[in-house]
Amino acid sequence: MQLAQEDRVTALSFRTDDVPMMATANSEGDVALWDLDNKRLMHVLQNAHDGVISSVDFMVGQPLLITSSADNSIKEWLFDGNDGIPRLLRSRTGHFAPPQMIRYHGDDGRHLLSAGRDQTLRFFSVFRDAQNTELSQGSLERESRVRHARMSALRFPAVTQFASNTAMSRDWDDVVSCHQGSRDAHSWSVERKSLGKYTLESSDSSIVRAVAISACGNFGFLGLASGVIEMANMQSGLSRRTFVGHTKAVTGVHTDACNLRVYSTSLDGTLRIWDFATGNQLHCINMPSTPSHLIVYRESSLLACACDDACIRVIDAESTRIVRTFSGHRNRITDLAFSNDGRWIVSSSLDCTIRTWDLPTGYMVDWFRVESVPVSVAFSPMGDFLATAHMDSVGIFLWANRTQFADITLRQINPHSDGSTDGSVAGAALVAMPTTAGLVDENEETVEDVEMDAVYMAPEQLTDNMVTLSSQPKSKWQTLMNLATIKKRNMPEKPAQVPELAPFFLPTTMSVEHQFDFGTSDAANIPTDPTSSKLISVSSESQLARILFNAHTTRVYAPVFEYLKTLNPSAIDVEIRSLPVDDQLKALKAFVCATTCQLKSKRDFELAQAYLHVFIAVFTDIIKANARELEPLLAELRNELKAQWDTVDNLIRYSACMIEFMRTK
Predict the structure, then answer these.
(1) Distance CA 654, CA 659 (A)
(2) Are 306 and 287 in contact (CB under 8 A)?
(3) Within a 13 Å sphere around the CA of 259, how many CA atoms are in the beta-carbon half?
(4) Which of 237-246, 327-336, 374-383, 470-479 has the lowest mean pLDDT?
(5) Is 79 exposed, middle or buried (0-12, 13-18, 19+ CB in 10 A)?
């Protein structure tokens, strides 16, 4: 028997459930079904896959055919009809060409959208693989059969950029995309998992280079190669407004959270801020280098641009100033992402590194190197995962955020070191890529192994010029300052009454009838020793007094505050009140010197204030009576206290003014 099929046969299988059938596959993605009794072709599943079919297998004793292909898909076909033609029962598919852009869809961090070089836009679930699907571009299979063309030739060009917003997902389309070399942008519906209703055309027939969706989900924005930005209504697909000002192609478009501002970057080297309602330009910022990517953190109006000089520049939209510049990448930056709280920026580059930059400090706090070039990154809205896509891989990789599961101390890392020339600075560790099992090879060196020995301990005081507070709880020094009020409030209205003493076994009289003996107990007749005292022992010096005397002799007063920090508020109050008062006032002078020394060190500022408050309240009369003798020490304490308090007071007033300014504005 000899049977012929078009193109090269790559796999075959025989049916084993008493039906004489053979299935063969070819390199064009077609599956042919043959009737072995009649030696004829029964049916051809055209375009069953988009690539070379590597395997076809009939399940033993069942009318099921399993096919797999180089298009990263596996499909299950069921023969349940009388005509012998199978239908697709279920399938698992993914990108068969590396993805170019990935973004989280929604605010729960459960779903991802991914656009790949295979000309598809796909929806992925982080937790359930069964929900993964391709957003449909129409009846491509039927159209390919009618036109006798491959489905890849009927698809849209590869997606170069897309934007999504779930605010109006139940009402109209919630995704807009632009395509390679295309003058049109297309809307999509994640709710229906299909192409949307409208095709948004550019008004001047120029290529669409960037897209965005407003925070409300009502408007889509197209950044054109001519430099014009168009705003269209997502519900009707009609053009509403144009923003004219850029002289070269637009590279990024975004809006703020309140539909007041539109932000855009262009190859003309500018970042422009537009009025959302009128389309007028409000500000134009000339960037030091041409911006290629633009992202925005809407909660704080911070913009981040990746420029052609491999630097990341952060712009405050309110002040229109560059507030941070991050440099260190050795090749072009491929993508950026803000963390969910806006504190970090994660960047990927052609130098195969993924770096994390801390906005408040301006430092790089983490980086690692991978074998494959990362082309896109996305930070989960919940802050638990970082998703990455790579140049030579069809998968999307998830990295866990360790700071959510353990106490991780972040430290400054030199972004310009590679570990090859300076042995004192460790370079980026080469990290194995995540697998489907979520584990790496045990023989591979992980980041935890590299950093196991380098445990960073935060210093007690960052600089000597900074006034710092203690790590003690706030309630401790607040209770100390209000201890008298607390004791008065907790004092009972009536004194506690001692219950009458009664023996456990009541004594009885020696008589025929049972009668209790209510006479005096033997305990009342026990003679007492007039020389005994309730005070067993009284120490002449307290522990605090001994530490003060020793510190005053050695001029090292740090142990005084270290001892006081170990006591509770009531014990601190007792220790201060128990300081001995002699003719030389040695204990009082030592306490004043210890407080002055503590203020000069600029540490434990609030504790020094609280201890001094209790000390003055207890010994006010003694200080007044001996003012001349204590005047030099008190003058030094007063000057140091005023200097430190002025510093703290200025900071408090400055912060209060800034908060009031932001609130009223």
Answers:
(1) 9
(2) no
(3) 12
(4) 470-479
(5) buried
For position 502, what pLDDT does the model report?
61
Short-list 29, 47, 27, 6, CA closest to 154: 47
Determine the Cα–Cα distance for residues 240 and 249; give it in Å rounded to an integer.
21
Helix, strand, or coil (residue 81):
coil
Long-range contact set of residues 576-582: C-beta below 8 Å, sequence gap at least 24: 576/544, 576/611, 576/614, 576/615, 576/618, 577/618, 578/542, 578/544, 578/545, 579/542, 579/544, 579/545, 579/548, 579/619, 580/540, 580/541, 580/545, 581/619, 581/622
Structure-token match 């920090």, residue found: 565
How would you class 111 by CB atoms within 10 Å of its CB: exposed for 0-12, middle for 13-18, buried for 19 or more?
A: buried
For residues 389-395, give the mean pLDDT.
90
Average pLDDT over residues 252-274: 94
Q: Are 381 and 104 in contact (CB under 8 A)?
A: yes
DSSP 8-state class, residue 167: T
Mean pLDDT of 477-484: 81
Contacts of 356 (CB under 8 A, 6+ apart): 344, 345, 346, 364, 365, 366, 367
Name the nearest CA neighbour of 367 among 416, 312, 296: 416
CA distance 263 to 245: 12
Distance between CA 38 and CA 44 in Å, rounded? 16
Q: What is the pLDDT of residue 458?
A: 63
pTM of the model: 0.66
Task: Decide if 520 contacts 609 (C-beta within 8 A).
Answer: no
Under the banding of pLDDT at 50, 70 and 90, the label for residue 176 is: very high
Structure token pair of residue 159: 């997606």
